[in-house]
Amino acid sequence: MRNFVFPLLLCSAFVLPSAAHADAIDDFVLTGIYGNSNVITFSLPASPPGSGNNCPPSSPSCVPQYLLSFNAFAPVTFNGVTTDEELTFLTGRAGGGFYLHPTPQSSLRYFGPTLFVLNGEDPTFVPGTYGVFSEGALAPPLPYSLTITPETTAPTPEPSTLALFGTGLAGLIEFARTRKRRLS
């Protein structure tokens, strides 16, 4: 019995106090309007890592990358077909909106407002509905409605204080019982 209790207590000492954590996710739905039937969906972390400051200190006229755009990679579903794609989100300084890069040689630009705010160098998406449009070289602009919504997830279960104290108390009781048996 003694050989079973100690590993169990040791395991609970490492597992129970560890905090569970889930990243917030935002869902993006780009829906064509006014006869445009395209539907594009993808999900990204609500606060993805930014692009960082890549300006050399000796160049005061350099604009840091995080003030212009940041890139993210995600599975994108375009009219029911899912592919892994790169997305580039632009700040207002770079014209706003975003790019989808289905292949390294092509990109689809969606013009519109800036979809995130900067927290230092890291962006945070702003939930809401935005009007954006894509423009082809020989085609008229196609209007879209972009909706960014936070994904609703169940709260991550964490052990209660009573469960933590109870586990420790049960371990102490078992330790006392084992010691008492050994002494008698």
From TrEMBL:
Q: Which InterPro entries does the record cross-reference, listed alphabetically? A: Ice-binding_C
The UniProt keywords, alphabetically, are: Signal
Q: Is Signal tagged as a keyword?
A: yes
Q: Which Pfam families match?
A: PEP-CTERM (PF07589)
Task: State if Cytoplasm is listed as a keyword.
Answer: no
According to UniProt, the name of this protein is Ice-binding protein C-terminal domain-containing protein
| Ice-binding protein C-terminal domain residues | 155-180
Give the originating organism. Tunturiibacter lichenicola
Signal peptide location: 1-22
